[in-house]
Design goal:
By secondary structure, the chain is mostly helical. The chain has a domain at 2-46. 42% of the residues lie in helices and 0% in strands. The protein is built from 3 helices and no strands. The chain is elongated, with a radius of gyration of 21 Å. The termini are far apart.
Length: 79
């Protein structure tokens, strides 16, 4: 029985986090009035480097492999 409650609490917390993560910036700013941490954006903590908004991040698709690390893609026709 206790395990059910623990799982329910963890799933509820995960659901709240996912809703907060997907909130628009305006709604997050309103939450920031109640607590400063709620108003912060989830931004660069994920280290995804796909949006190029983080300081020092390159634009998506601009990262090229170093010389010697390139591997050509070849397609072989099936008989």
């Amino acid at each position: 029985m206790a395990q059910d409650w623990i799982v329910a609490v963890l799933v509820g917390l995960a659901a709240l986090y996912s809703v907060w993560y997907l909130l628009p910036a305006a709604a997050r700013e309103r939450l920031g009035r109640y607590h400063r941490a709620l108003g912060s954006s989830p931004g660069c903590s994920t280290s995804c480097s796909s949006c190029a908004k983080c300081p020092g991040a390159a634009a998506p698709g601009s990262v090229r492999p170093a010389a010697g690390e390139e591997h050509p893609v070849t397609f072989d026709r099936q008989p």
